[in-house]
Amino acid sequence: MSPAERFRLDGQLALVTGASSGIGRHCSELLASMGAKVALASRRIDQLESIVKAIEQKGGLAKAFPLDVTNIESVKACFDAISEWGTPSIVINNAGISVTKSILEQTETDWDQVIDTNLKGVWLVATEAARHMVASKTSGSIINMASILGERQINGVAPYAISKAGVIQLTKTMALELARYQIRVNAILPGYVVTDLNREFLQSELGEKLRLRIPSRRFSELSDLDGPILLLASDAGKAISGSTIPVDGAHLVSSL
Ligand code: NAI
């Protein structure tokens, strides 16, 4: 197999959570373009159907599945539904939310929603995925979408930053325990990635101030995630597990 061929994903089934927008949608289309069948999962199933169509129009294979990552019954039902199609060997834990308020204003509900989605949700999906892989003797790759805020701080998003720090440690402990089953677990730590949801803010005056604090002086584009995702998902990254890869234009190592 040539080095380039090792990045192909033919014959693999990938599950992407939070696939209805932004990074999740982009990852789904990327994995399909490299030959994987893609199970797109999110609460908003109607929005997934149009992405399934877009993937099919480009010759890819995809199906939509309802999933609320905060709910164990929903997670189990999603894997049961997907199992008729196969066992996912690639899982992208991408679903995530944030609540922006000062630490004095964050409520218990804010905390619960963010931690349940970003941390408990990743744990529920990753462990259920691993159980299916082990039962079917499938080697696999679990990729958790953390954030540079799992390692650094900014104002106003304490539960989010704490949840992402938890995802980083979850990634490393799962990598340790699952290595014997040939299941790899890694995390990607994006910096600011331009998506439909934040484009307006990132182009505003405040966004411009933020950009100037990034050593590379640029926000990331969705396509900047392609290399890291394909490396971790494919045979090219066969020996990589327990790693955390920042994709941030050196934001994480910016000068204090
Ligand atoms: P987004 O808001 O466009 O996508 C989040 C997705 O998660 C949506 O499809 C939403 O429906 C889904 N979701 C939320 N709660 C869910 C639940 N309970 N069950 C199932 N799906 C649920 O946001 P974006 O920017 O694409 O973010 C994706 C991931 O990347 C998140 O984990 C986020 O924290 C992370 N990230 C994003 C960065 C950025 O600059 N866009 C930077 C660093 C990390």
Automatic annotation (TrEMBL):
GO biological process, one term: fatty acid elongation
GO terms assigned for molecular function: oxidoreductase activity, acting on the CH-OH group of donors, NAD or NADP as acceptor
Ranges that cross the membrane: none
Listed Pfam families: adh_short_C2
Stored PROSITE patterns: ADH_SHORT (PS00061)
UniProt similarity note: Belongs to the short-chain dehydrogenases/reductases (SDR) family.
Name the record gives this protein: SDR family oxidoreductase
